[in-house]
Amino acid sequence: MIPALLSNYAPTDLSFEKGEGAYLFGNDGRRYLDFAAGIAVTSLGHAHPNVVKAITDQAAKLWHVSNLFRIPGQEELAAKLVDATFADAVYFCNSGAEANECGLKMIRKYFSENGQAERYRVIAFEGSFHGRTLATIAAAGQDKLLEGFGPAMDGFDHIPVGDIKAVKAAITPETAGVIIEPIMGEGGIKVVDPEFMRALRTLCDEEGLLLMFDEIQTGMGRTGKLFAYEHLGMVPDIMSSAKALGNGFPVGACLAVEKVAKCMTVGTHGSTYGGNPLAMAVAGAVVDTMTEPGFLDRVTQIGGHLKQSLNGVIDRYPSVLEELRGVGLHLGLKCRVENTDLLNALKSQGVLAAKGGDNVVRLLAPLIIEEQQISEFVEALEKACEELV
Q: What predicted TM-score, i.e. pTM, was given to this entire model?
């Protein structure tokens, strides 16, 4: 007989009983320093008091009513996100993949509404990751994601990231937009050249295309800004958000400028659970906490401290570590040994991190990390490297 639980994951034999701040407490009796944060999700740490209060208070009042009725929490949170970003309107859903699905539908709908229904194709980039639905695995275009699921959904053209001439050459009369991650997280914390990002914006303007940023992993303070596009001096037309938006509670959002948002009229898209009162209370608390004065400045400061410490470890263990990548607290260590070996060595030292592409170990510390905990991590990393030398 097969297990009752579908075997689509291969989890390590470790579970957790509780979490506090930057720590998780395992069923093995050990305390672990959490530098995975649920893959950039629990960015305010575990059991953050603001989030706990929000979910507890709301759970005692109302969880769900559906979008057949007004949900004031949606209107309040949408206004906060509009005030804090480039966007003019927000759609709420349950996950990053759903947020990307909404954005991709927006791209097609915009051109259909403007009498150019033949424009539906989206330029995407090799090595990207946008989710696990049929549309989002087609957007990523990676064989390992597509294998076994039949013909890939039509409408995506893939080119190497960083080559603006290749982007221009890929544009046809059917091209509608471009989707890109400012930092390719699953791909190994590869920071896309800011000049290339700005060139994309210019090209999209010249060709009348829509530019969509996937900020599911880079958003909500991870890079020291609320969203990574703020580092670039330009804005997208559409942006997806999820992961840290709910600090572990399932919630996603798709943000858009007015010309795009107004094309999504009644009946064009929807979700049963999306934006329910419980989700909105939690996400509202997260946004309020991250937009408090000084919060993001501290992320930049503590991220700089961590990077400086990590560069020292790389210098001391060049046979184990090759380079440090990333911005803020969205960091990755490119390894010379197998990244799984380093992950296991870190776990034996009581530290959790996340695997990434290109033989990278992703370091996704909660944004509330303290200097003492960085020292604890660096000490564990050095011991892990010593073990692997």
A: 0.96
